[in-house]
Amino acid sequence: xxxxxxxxxxxxxxxxxxxxxxGDRALPGSAGALASRAxxxxxxxxxxxxxxxxxxxxxxxxxxxxxxxxxxxxxxxALPLKRNVAxxxxxxxxxxxxxxxxxxxxxxxxxxxxxxxxxxDLRELLGPLEPPDRAAEAARRFVVALPELYxxxxxxxxxxxxxxxxxxxxxxxxxxxxxxxxxxxxxxxxQIQLLGVRVLPRLLAEVAHSRTGIDIHPGATIxxxxxxxxxxxxxxxxTAVIGDEVKLYQGVTLGALSVAKAAAxxxxxxxxxxxxxxxxxxxxxxxxxxxxHDSVVGGNVWLTNSVPPYSLVYHSSQVRVRSxxxxxxxxxxxx
Length: 335
Fold this sequence. Notes:
Elements: H1 2-14, H2 22-26, H3 31-71, H4 82-96, H5 108-126, H6 132-163, H7 170-176, H8 178-194, H9 200-212, E1 215-216, E2 221-222, E3 227-228, E4 235-236, E5 241-242, E6 247-248, E7 253-255, E8 271-272, E9 277-278, E10 283-285, E11 290-291, E12 296-297, E13 302-303, E14 312-313
Parallel strand pairs: 1-4, 2-5, 3-6, 4-7, 5-8, 6-9, 7-10, 8-11, 9-12, 10-13, 12-14
Helix pairs in contact: 1-3, 4-5, 4-9, 5-6, 6-8, 8-9
């Protein structure tokens, strides 16, 4: 490309402005000769401009490729692929719950073999993130923690069955309820975070978020028998603490009052006591905010102060009902 452009430039310089082509010389001074010379000059100018533009684009493309190449980590140091993270959590849940497995029947020996595979798969996921010995130790400790993890998730499923009148069976909850799936994946992600592993717990949380619309940070501390009903839009922040037998509805946010980076590492999210019910689209903010046990927080509440146990917190709004025959006022549609 560069040689071709150089040759074109040389030819353009070597040809004097207004020089005649062979066709022009055949008809000196004619109108056709003048028109031919003008058209030829315009064509060369357009070609030269096009080729210069192509050369510039080629240089920019090379520079961009160099920038991207420098930003890529060396082989073996890339983060785990999301599809591999999703496959890992699916394998764990399929092992724990036959309702989520392609093959429901399994012998004890087959389950032990699956546990070995879980340990191997987790070790491989941790390969780019941790030294080999730490990856192997974290994978071993995770498998050791699985019995207690399984018991916690079972209690969550039972709480959803007990708390949702529409739930017809435990099998239905495990198979179809997004709240159950989000809590189960959170329990797995939180356990891995407790092992001191970086990045992977957040990737696991994002699997649940993308599948259910429920965003639970893996650092959040959740007690026994959590029930998330419906669940879409629920957000639970990193330092939130949730007690036992809590029930959350769709759109609930347990968030921070400030998003300043300087607040990282501090308690920024609320504490929810045992047996609290928080209804749809309620927002509870702040690391010092505590909702006392056995309280009820109504829908659409915005809460930034602590409330004592057995509190009823509700948002009061005016709802008017009248006949459409009475007409409308402009204020009826103010948002």
